[in-house]
Specification:
This protein has about 500 residues and is an alpha/beta fold. The chain has 19 helices and 22 strands. The strands form six sheets. It has a seven-stranded mixed sheet with strand order 14-15-16-13-12-18-19, sandwiched between helices. The protein has a six-stranded mixed sheet with strand order 9-8-7-10-11-21. Strands 5-6-22 form a three-stranded antiparallel sheet. Helix 3 packs antiparallel against helix 5 (about 95-115), helix 4 runs antiparallel to helix 9 and helix 10 (about 205-215) runs parallel beside helix 11 (about 230-240).
């Protein structure tokens, strides 16, 4: 019988109260690996209650002590990274190398969160008025909840909870119901690290658990990552009950190349950006824009690079392009390719029926569509699959205008050897994560991450210093001690008035 995975509440793995389940498939074979319970409000309530109880003592635990379990977790994750990466490949489909990147980026978050004693220090000033000092401290707020997507089963949950618990909050994670096995293994390791019961919890499920977390009166804040419609929903629903919410949504990323770029290296980076993780990255390139003469070379070089793409099971070390997440995703992407053709795009490479792969798997080969017109489906919609759209524009200004007109603004990159052009590009583009000669400009754990427009709903970005901002509240104390025999000095200005 196929196993149904358990929740992790109050330091224990426990059954969900739900009997409703959804299967977890290996996208390379369609095999059912296990079932995810589609949890209930009761599951949410029980996890939040335990997290609320744990907060009472965790918030008073010195920060230097709160980070000790994270140090232990970092060591355990290092020891088990290959095993976790293999699990990621099985339930997600990405290649083993990509899966290793997924876990390593997650480990970096834990490392940065271990610096919390310094990161969350406050501010103080003496003599803000005669004989009065002031100091601001950062306080944890209570229970936070995280809702994460399928595309980075290991990394994305680490964007949040290590920072939340290091700052003294407690946490309830709801991973994607499509890839929860990676987090199951990670939570087995978390269980060995010595966190007090209830500090970190996990509830599995879909929209009922999400809505339960958004509505729950004892949840102070919500971290969300996923598609734009659900990000908007979570932002609206969570903030309606007064929560602090940050919701990261979808993307449509334009990569621009100038004629002076180092063509071979640049196009390689652009193609890797588009096809890496089967295009299922929020920072994946989607539309490659050639400025002037760069367009011809871009097209030629893209077609050369495509020859190196090897579609297959991510566990095979030769594979460079794994399957997409589900049959539904494969069907959706196939339809989007047809729509692009119907809207006038020229199909240069058709990846819809790749050869030499398991017919049960959800495989798509590399697809290249040329002559994409502004405003068409391919130019505006997030495809989230291994599809490249090519466009030509006359000037870099035109490219900037084009990408700034998108509803999304997650990331963009410019490929050039011209410093002046790069500087202008950085200053004028709307997406808040910008690359120069970088295919996937992902800010590292110690910087802040997040897009703008329909790619991000909220005020405070993710990880780095922003995480301290998001997970703490500033409290300021104004302090006066009377010294016997001295009169409080009064500033001459006030005396005169
Ligand atoms: P998704 O929106 O389908 O799911 C994300 C989470 O929302 C899951 O935990 C899911 O259970 C929950 N959810 C799904 N439908 C819901 C509903 N109707 N009501 C309430 N909750 C619901 O996203 P996905 O397919 O798992 O992930 C891919 C998307 O995530 C892409 O759009 C991608 O761009 C985006 N993403 C963005 C970033 C970023 O940094 N901006 C990073 C990673 C992924």
């Amino acid at each position: 019988m196929t196993k149904t995975i358990q929740n992790y509440i109050n330091g224990q793995f426990v059954d969900s109260t739900s009997t409703d389940i959804t299967p977890i498939h290996n996208p390379a074979t369609d095999e059912v690996l296990a079932n995810t319970p589609l949890g209930t409000y009761k599951d949410v309530d029980s996890a939040v209650a335990c997290a609320k109880e744990a907060f009472k003592t965790w918030k008073k635990t010195p920060t230097v002590d709160r980070i000790q379990p994270l140090f232990k977790l970092k060591t355990l994750l290092e020891e088990h990274k290959k095993e976790i990466a293999t699990l990621i490949v099985k339930e997600h489909g990405k290649t083993l190398k990509e899966a290793m990147g997924d876990i390593l980026r997650g480990i970096q978050m834990v490392e940065v969160a271990c610096g919390m004693p310094a990161l969350m220090m406050g501010e103080n000033a003496t003599n803000i008025a005669a004989g009065i000092d002031a100091s601001t401290e950062r306080r944890p707020m209570g229970v936070f909840a995280g809702i994460t997507p399928f595309n980075f089963p290991a990394m994305v949950p680490f964007w949040f909870w290590p920072f939340a618990v290091a700052t003294g909050n407690t946490y309830v994670l709801k991973p994607s119901e499509r890839v929860p096995l990676t987090q199951m293994r990670i939570f087995e390791l978390i269980n060995e690290c010595g966190f007090p019961k209830g500090v970190i919890n996990m509830v599995h499920g879909g929209k009922d658990v999400v809505n339960g977390l958004c509505d729950h009166a004892d949840v102070e804040g919500v971290n969300f990552v996923g598609s734009t419609p659900i990000a908007k929903h979570v932002y609206t629903r969570g903030s309606a009950t007064g929560k602090r919410v940050q919701a990261l949504g979808g993307a449509k990323n334009f990569m621009v190349i100038l004629p002076d770029a180092s063509m071979e290296q640049s196009v390689k980076a652009m193609v890797d950006s588009c096809y890496g993780c089967a295009g299922e990255r929020c920072l994946a390139g989607s539309i490659l824009v050639g400025v002037g003469d760069a367009y011809g070379q871009l097209k030629e070089q893209v077609l050369n690079e495509i020859k190196n793409v090897k579609v297959g099971d991510g566990l095979n070390p030769e594979t460079t392009l794994g399957p997409v997440i589900s049959k539904a995703a494969k069907d959706r992407i196939t339809t989007d390719i047809q729509t692009a053709i119907d809207e006038g795009a020229e199909l240069l490479v058709d990846g819809r029926n790749p050869e030499g792969v398991d017919a049960n798997g959800y495989f798509l080969g590399a697809t290249v569509l040329d002559k994409i017109k502004p405003g068409t489906t391919m130019a505006t919609k997030e495809i989230f699959g291994p599809v490249i759209g090519l466009m030509q524009v006359a000037t870099m200004d035109e490219a900037i205008e084009l990408l700034n007109s998108s509803n999304y603004a997650n990331t963009t990159s410019l490929f050039t050897t011209n410093g002046g052009a790069a500087r202008k590009f950085i200053q004028e583009v709307t997406p808040s994560m910008v690359g120069v000669n970088i295919g996937v400009p992902a800010p590292m754990a110690f910087f802040s991450f997040g897009g703008s427009k329909d790619s991000f709903f909220g005020d405070i970005k993710v990880h780095g210093n922003s995480s301290v901002e998001f997970f703490t509240e500033k409290h300021t104390a104004m302090i006066r001690w009377y010294e016997e025999g001295t009169e409080a000095a009064v500033c001459p200005i006030w005396k005169e008035n």
